[in-house]
Specification:
single chain, 412 residues, alpha+beta, Cytochrome Bc1 Complex, Chain A, domain 1, six-stranded mixed sheet, five-stranded mixed sheet, globular
Length: 412
């Protein structure tokens, strides 16, 4: 069990403290309840743009990295469709440096045309490098648009269109910041060789005076149930033909999520999984194949994707996948096969093996989901899943009407 204390500042900032005296280090993790799903469809990519802008200096600290490096610290961040997360690792004795840095950029970024211009160029280059010029780079832009008709998961974190970032105006960027990056929409987790009293004093000192902002109430358009199979064919400069199939699954808080998660492991969790054993090793239809899902907070996608062995026809590769899905839907899952994937999950959730940084990240995420204490009962949700549950979900999820398929052909 992971132990923690929590308190909330008057401005609404939720603070969680995980004390661990076995390490000389500390982690300061700030999670903002904003992701790509919260963007205007005409101004996408803003949450990810902020990940870059937040490192561009704040009102009192023009150079973010320099004082952190002097304190022996490292930092990074990530943005998803659901959230934005910033974290610092540093020696616990220099903890206050992290509070100073994080509070100042929450108070106010150094908004300027110059800073925006620099980061706009960085993000635009990233877009071109990873999503326009890279082989298969456009596939998830296309797949999201194929699978979603209304929900904002229909665009990627990087943004729907390069022009949205290229044309981002300073006023739009400021407005997005002051709407979302406020104490009332943030969770601060401090983990490591710290005490709750120490964190409380530092939180009050550095974050207590920041205006709370208005709590963001999410009201997103809901995706209707998919009634027909969707299909798209792409030709591109890629080395091998590839096949992608995506199926709608459940929101992260739905109990059925756990059966779907284990189902993806049975099919594609590593070299001993069903799809790899049959379609890569035995039938040699694919050079590699995976089954996974995005772990989205709202209803997400469960995906099967693979690169075909040269010379294999797309219809044969697709038939191979279909046969394995039908075998699963109509057959059984031996108890030992289910136990194996549960053991794998258990080892991933084992706190004693989890890094301090991952513990802090997880506490922030579960607090976002409703309560950090959910982290301690997570494995129970997996343990309750039966083979019958998995078979039932296989029949529901892998219904052809629920499928979104892309055939990606190697061409000029």
């Amino acid at each position: 069990m992971i132990h923690f204390n929590r308190f909330t500042l008057e401005n609404g900032l939720r603070v969680i403290v995980h004390e661990d005296t076995t390490t000389p280090m500390a982690v300061v993790n700030v999670l903002y309840d904003v992701g790509a799903r919260d963007e205007d469809p005409a101004q996408t990519g803003f949450a990810h743009l902020f990940e870059h802008l937040m490192f561009g200096g704040s009102v009192n600290i023009p150079e973010y990295d320099e004082p952190l490096q002097m304190a022996g610290g490292e930092n990074n961040a990530y943005t998803t469709n659901d959230l934005t997360n910033y974290y610092i690792e540093l020696p616990a004795e220099n903890l206050e440096t992290a509070f100073w840095l994080e509070s100042d950029r929450m108070l106010s970024l150094a908004f300027s045309e110059k800073s925006l211009d620099v980061q706009r160029k960085v993000v635009s280059e990233e877009f071109k490098e990873h999503y326009i010029n890279k082989p298969y780079g456009d596939v998830w832009h296309k797949m999201r648009e194929l699978a979603y008709s209304r929900h904002p998961y229909r665009w990627m974190t990087i943004g729907k269109d390069l022009s949205h970032i290229e044309q981002a105006k300073l006023e739009d960027v400021k407005s997005f910041f002051f709407r979302h990056y406020r104490p009332v929409n943030a969770i601060l987790v401090v983990a490591g060789n710290v005490t709750t009293e120490q964190v409380k004093a530092l939180a009050e000192k550095w974050f207590g005076d920041i205006p709370s902002g208005e709590r963001y109430i999410r009201n997103l358009p809901q995706e209707p149930q998919q009634a027909d199979a969707h299909f798209l064919e792409i030709k591109g400069k890629v080395p091998l033909d590839a096949l992608y199939k995506a199926y709608h699954m459940y929101p992260r808080k739905d109990q059925r999520y756990y059966a779907a998660d284990l189902l993806s492991d049975v099919l594609g969790g590593g070299g001993s999984s069903r799809l790899h054993q049959v379609l890569v090793k035995e039938k040699k239809l694919f050079s590699n194949i995976e089954c996974y899902h995005f772990g989205s907070v709202d209803a997400g996608l469960l995906v099967i994707e693979g690169k075909l062995v040269k010379g294999v026809k797309m219809k044969d590769a697709e038939k191979g996948i279909q046969e394995e899905l039908e075998k699963l839907q109509q057959g059984e899952i031996p108890g030992r096969e289910l136990q194996k994937v549960k053991n794998r999950v258990e080892s991933m959730l084992a706190f004693e093996d989890m890094s301090l940084l991952n513990r802090a990240n997880n506490l922030a995420f579960y607090e976002l989901m409703g309560d950090a204490a959910l982290m301690n009962t997570e494995f129970d949700n997996y343990e309750r899943v039966t083979t019958a549950d998995i078979l039932q979900e296989a029949r529901i999820i892998f219904n052809e009407q629920n499928s979104n398929t892309i055939h990606y052909y190697a061409g000029n």
